[in-house]
C-alpha cells in the first residue's frame, strides 16, 4: 500500500532538495562540471532518494554520488527525463480512464487510441477513425468526432516527470540527516572572454578591460554557486554539446574582482572570488581584467592571401612590463577610440586564441581608407624544373604623415625558393612567409620590386641559378 501525502502524492521516497553547497566549473567546449552537496533524511535500510532540479542535459554516465560521512552507499541510480507534455500524457493514458468535455456534455471511458496529429490542434475540419479519439464506455466503443473543449486526467502517471529527476536507491546504516555529494558533467554551459580596448589619441597606448561571459542553458538554476572557469581545449570522447540560444543578459559591475588564476594540468583555472547565481537561460558577465596604458604598435600590412586592401593591425606584447603578463583566454577583442567630442567610436574587432604570457598579440582591426596598394606581375620565366616571377607593388599614401607598409609574400611551400633581387631588404619570417618594410612619405608614393626563383624539388634538370 502506498504512503500518500495530503495532496495525494507518494511519500515513500525521500527528496534531496536542500542544497548546502554547489560549485560549478565551466569549460570552453559547452561542458560544465557541477559539484553539489544536498541534505536529506534517511531511514535505516533501503531508501529511495529523488534529486530534483537537475539539468536536462546532464551526462548520466559521469555521475558520482556518495554519502560524505560514509553512512550510506548507493545501490542503483536512474535518471528520469521523460518530461510531461500533452502528447505524452495522452499516450500514457491509453487503457486508462479519462474524461472528455464536449460542447454538449462530457464523456467518460477507457482511452483506446489517440489521433495521429498532436493534441492541441483543431479536429473540427476532418474526422475519421484514424484521426479521432476512441473510448470504451459502458455503452460501447465511442469515436469522438466533434470539437473537444477540455480533457480531464485523474493524475500524472508515475513514469512521467514534471522536470528532470535523479532517482537513487541508497542503503543507510543509520537513520537521520545525511549530506549527499553528487558530481556530474552537463551540457548547455559555456564561457568565453570578451575584451574591450580603447586607444589613445596617438594610437600608441590602449586601456584594456576583460569580461567573462558565462552561459547557462543546462536546464536548471544554480543558486549561490562557487564559480570557476577553465581556459584550454579539453578532449572529449563524446561530441561537444550544443550551447543553444541565450535569452537573458546580466551585466556585472565594471570594477574587476580579484579573480584567482592558477595552472591546472596544461590549462588555466580561474576562480571567481564571490558566489553568484547562474540562472537557467542566462548570460552572466564578470569582469576579470582592467589594465591601462598598454603599449601598442599600429601596423599597415598588405597581404593578398587575406585581403586586397591594406590591413590595419594592432600588435602588443602580453608581458608584465607592458601592464599585462597573464594568460589571456580566447575570445573576441573589440577596439574603440574617442572622437573630437570625446565620444567613444567602434573601430573593429578580431578573435584571439589562448595567449600565454610573454607572447605577442596581433589584432586585425580593419582596412586602411587612405592607403592603396596594387601588385603587378612584371615578368615570368618557366621551365620543367623552375619558375621565376618578378613583381612590383605600388603603394600610394594619401595620409599627411609618413608611414611604413609591411608587404607580405607567401612563397611556394612545395618548392625551394630564393629572392634573386629586390629594392628593399626582405625578412624571412618562415619557409612560407617573407615580408618587406616599405617606407612611404606623407601624400607620397613608393614602389617595391622583387624577383623570386622557385626550384621544384627532386627535379633532374636544375636551373643554372640553383639554390
Automatic annotation (TrEMBL):
Protein name (Swiss-Prot/TrEMBL): DUF4139 domain-containing protein
Amino acid at each position: 500500500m502506498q504512503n500518500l501525502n495530503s495532496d495525494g502524492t507518494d511519500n515513500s521516497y525521500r527528496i534531496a532538495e536542500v542544497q548546502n553547497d554547489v560549485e560549478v566549473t565551466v569549460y570552453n567546449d559547452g561542458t560544465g562540471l557541477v559539484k553539489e552537496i544536498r541534505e536529506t533524511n534517511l531511514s535505516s535500510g533501503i531508501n529511495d532518494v529523488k534529486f530534483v532540479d537537475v539539468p536536462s542535459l546532464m551526462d548520466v554516465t559521469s555521475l558520482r554520488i556518495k554519502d560524505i560521512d560514509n553512512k550510506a552507499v548507493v545501490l542503483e541510480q536512474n535518471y528520469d527525463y521523460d518530461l510531461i507534455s500533452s502528447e505524452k500524457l495522452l499516450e500514457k493514458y491509453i487503457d486508462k480512464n479519462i474524461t472528455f468535455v464536449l460542447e454538449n456534455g462530457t464523456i467518460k471511458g477507457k482511452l483506446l487510441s489517440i489521433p495521429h496529429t498532436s493534441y492541441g490542434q483543431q479536429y473540427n475540419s476532418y474526422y475519421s477513425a484514424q484521426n479521432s479519439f476512441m473510448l470504451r464506455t459502458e455503452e460501447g466503443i465511442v469515436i469522438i468526432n466533434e470539437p473537444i473543449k477540455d480533457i480531464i486526467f485523474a493524475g500524472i502517471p508515475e513514469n512521467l516527470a514534471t522536470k528532470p529527476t535523479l532517482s537513487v536507491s541508497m542503503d543507510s546504516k543509520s537513520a537521520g540527516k545525511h549530506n549527499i555529494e553528487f558530481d556530474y558533467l552537463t551540457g548547455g554551459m559555456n564561457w568565453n572572454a570578451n575584451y574591450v580596448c580603447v586607444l589613445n589619441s596617438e594610437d600608441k597606448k590602449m586601456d584594456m578591460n576583460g569580461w567573462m561571459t558565462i552561459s547557462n542553458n543546462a536546464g536548471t538554476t544554480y543558486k549561490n554557486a562557487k564559480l570557476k572557469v577553465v581556459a584550454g581545449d579539453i578532449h572529449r570522447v563524446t561530441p561537444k554539446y550544443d550551447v543553444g540560444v541565450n535569452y537573458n543578459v546580466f551585466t556585472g559591475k565594471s570594477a574587476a574582482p580579484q579573480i584567482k588564476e592558477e595552472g591546472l594540468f596544461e590549462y588555466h583555472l580561474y576562480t571567481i572570488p564571490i558566489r553568484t547565481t547562474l540562472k537557467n537561460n542566462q548570460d552572466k558577465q564578470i569582469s576579470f581584467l582592467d589594465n591601462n596604458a598598454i603599449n601598442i604598435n599600429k601596423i599597415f600590412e598588405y597581404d593578398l592571401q587575406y585581403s586586397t586592401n591594406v590591413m590595419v593591425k594592432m600588435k602588443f606584447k602580453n608581458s608584465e612590463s607592458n601592464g599585462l603578463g597573464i594568460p589571456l583566454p580566447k575570445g573576441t577583442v573589440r577596439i574603440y577610440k574617442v572622437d573630437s567630442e570625446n565620444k567613444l567610436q567602434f573601430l573593429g574587432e578580431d578573435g584571439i586564441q589562448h595567449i600565454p604570457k610573454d607572447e605577442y598579440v596581433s589584432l586585425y582591426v580593419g582596412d586602411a581608407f587612405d592607403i592603396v596598394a596594387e601588385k603587378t606581375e612584371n615578368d615570368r620565366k618557366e621551365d620543367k624544373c623552375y619558375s621565376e616571377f618578378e613583381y612590383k607593388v605600388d603603394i600610394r599614401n594619401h595620409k599627411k604623415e609618413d608611414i611604413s607598409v609591411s608587404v607580405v609574400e607567401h612563397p611556394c611551400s612545395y618548392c625551394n625558393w630564393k629572392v634573386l633581387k629586390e629594392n628593399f631588404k626582405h625578412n624571412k619570417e618562415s619557409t612560407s612567409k617573407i615580408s618587406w618594410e616599405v617606407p612611404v612619405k606623407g601624400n607620397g608614393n613608393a614602389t617595391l620590386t622583387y624577383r623570386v626563383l622557385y626550384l621544384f624539388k627532386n627535379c633532374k634538370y636544375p636551373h643554372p641559378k640553383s639554390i
